[in-house]
From TrEMBL:
This is Enoyl-[acyl-carrier-protein] reductase [NADH]. The active site is at Y146, Y156. One of its GO terms (biological process) is fatty acid biosynthetic process. One of its GO terms (molecular function) is enoyl-[acyl-carrier-protein] reductase (NADH) activity. Pfam families: adh_short_C2 (PF13561). Keywords: Fatty acid biosynthesis, Fatty acid metabolism, Lipid biosynthesis, Lipid metabolism, NAD, Oxidoreductase. Substrate binds at A95. InterPro entries: Enoyl-ACP_Rdtase_NADH, NAD(P)-bd_dom_sf, SDR_fam. The lineage of its organism: Bacteria, Bacillati, Chloroflexota, Ktedonobacteria, Ktedonobacterales. NAD(+) binds at G13, S19, I20, Q40, D63, V64, V92, K163. Belongs to the short-chain dehydrogenases/reductases (SDR) family. FabI subfamily. Its EC number is 1.3.1.9. Pathway: Lipid metabolism; fatty acid biosynthesis.
Length: 256
């Protein structure tokens, strides 16, 4: 039997074929999960095109900064899935480009608020709405983070702060939702060629460094993150919660 036979997953963050969220969607679908993609209005065409590649995938409109749209998205998810949700995937992050180009000490109040609202608070907002759909049978909530939460990565700036807040949120959510058998984890992925990564200056140089320094002497690809998400979404990881799992060819263990 497929690992996720009969399981129902709501995925935020699918944008194009290079998206980590898309790789996760493919991995979950390959093991039998039924999917819903939550999308921003401006991304609708791209998301619809990808959803069509996985038969049965549904779509719900949602801007994560709009509580009314979050309420609507989870209400529609409940309607489609019959009041049940097993898996929630959070692949949402954003900071204004100027906040990544300017020195960190020039971070603006509005840029800070935007980055933390979209990249970190949204996980809390989603989890609040997922809990009623998961509390009867348990579930898995999974977010994406990056090691800049712990180490200085030049030009990552306020996004690093947002990722640190996201990781702390994972731990608090794991503690509070654990009594309902809801697990909350995050994957810290190595640098990938995604739309979001292209907004960070020097990302290609860093990818070259990872391929040289990492124990596996290579970069990862999106499918490796997707398959780790599959594991963390399945019963195989039923004893794991509140953890940050690195998928970066081992780069995080190195001193340089």
């Amino acid at each position: 039997m497929p690992l996720l036979e009969g399981k129902k997953a709501l995925i935020f963050g699918v944008a194009n074929h290079r998206s980590i969220a898309w790789a996760i969607a493919q991995s979950l679908a390959s093991e039998g999960a039924q999917l819903i993609f939550a999308y921003q209005e401006r991304m609708e065409k791209y998301v619809r095109d990808l959803a069509a590649k996985i038969p049965g995938t549904e779509l719900v409109l949602c801007d994560v900064q709009d509580d009314a749209q979050l309420d609507s998205a989870f209400a529609k998810t409940s309607e489609i899935f019959g009041g049940k949700l097993d898996i929630l995937i959070h692949c949402v992050a954003f900071a204004p480009s100027s906040e990544l180009e300017n020195p960190f000490f020039e971070t603006t109040r509005s840029g800070w608020q935007t980055a933390l609202d979209i990249s970190a608070y949204s996980l809390v907002a989603m989890s609040k709405r997922a809990q009623p759909l998961m509390k009867e049978n348990g579930g898995s909530i999974l977010a994406l983070t990056y090691m800049a939460s712990e180490r200085v990565m030049p030009k990552y700036n306020v996004m690093a702060v947002a990722k640190a807040a996201l990781e702390c949120s994972v731990r608090y959510l794991a503690f509070e939702l654990g009594e309902h058998n809801i697990r909350v984890n995050a994957i810290s992925a190595g640098p990938l060629n995604t739309l979001a990564a292209r907004g960070v200056s020097g990302i290609n140089d860093f990818r070259n460094q990872v391929a040289t320094v990492a124990p596996l002497r290579r970069n990862i690809d999106q499918s490796e993150v997707g398959d780790t998400a599959l594991f963390l979404s399945s019963h195989l990881s039923r004893g794991i919660t509140g953890e940050i799992t690195f998928v970066d060819a081992g780069y995080n263990i190195m001193g340089a």
